[in-house]
Amino acid sequence: MVLRTIRAVSNTQYAKLIGFSNSAFSFRMPLSPPVSRQLRHRRAIRAEAYEREDGLWDIEACLTDQKPRDVVLASGVRPNGQPIHELWLRITIDRKLNVVDAQASSDWVPYPGQCEVTNPAYRALIGLNLFNNFRREAARLLGGTAGCTHLTELCAFLPTAAIQAFAGEVWNTNDGNSPHDADSGAGSAEGSGEHSNDKPPFQLGRCHALRFDGEAVRQFYPRWYGRAPRSAERADAASGQTRHSTGNGSGTSRLNDSSGNEVQSNSQTEGNHA
After folding, report:
1. What is the spatial distance between Cα 257 and Cα 188, in angstroms, rounded to a whole number?
2. How many separate domains does the chain show?
3. In whole angstroms, what is the distance from residue 249 CA to residue 239 CA?
């Protein structure tokens, strides 16, 4: 038996391995070389999605904090190699992004016996929808002393993790099906691939690369090039007005949160954002 070493490859290397000729992979913009430095802390956040045999989906997120040395905590010394935090959050969702179950686990914490007490509080996520004000509602229900700071941080990653998981699996990203149209069969990746209505694919108009007047839409979604729906045009106009109103004293700016909804930087944002 011959064992082969598997090593990580870059996007460009991966493209070459699979014979992918998309020239976009050649436009890489790596970070500049850093000055001499030493690692002092590592935070890792990862999310995984699982399709269950009962038709539901689990979205599971984990946050870890670790330092490359012994750390003196209020609760004692945490030896090098042991996490300060290892926190897990799992939600179960249906195909319409409704949260039907939720649970949290605090495997490593700085205050053992204290931090874990808030784990049951995360069942408050049940009944929320990942596409409808989820981040705002999670912060309202679990922010501050109602929950764990870092578990509540993990909530922010769940909407886009679910959307990435559903793309090409639950939703056919070549047609105009939206998350709200999804059911046990609609928008399936096994569909015909034809546009089922006159709506653009869900992902268009939600980031800079996929703006309706951009090169990516012209090249890969030519039907929709320059054809932004009126709602998207209004959002673009509002975004432009915001950029030009910098310094008006309001302290408010708008960002597109990639789950399809506008997010304002202040905490009093109204509207439909994840």
Report:
1. 24
2. 2
3. 17
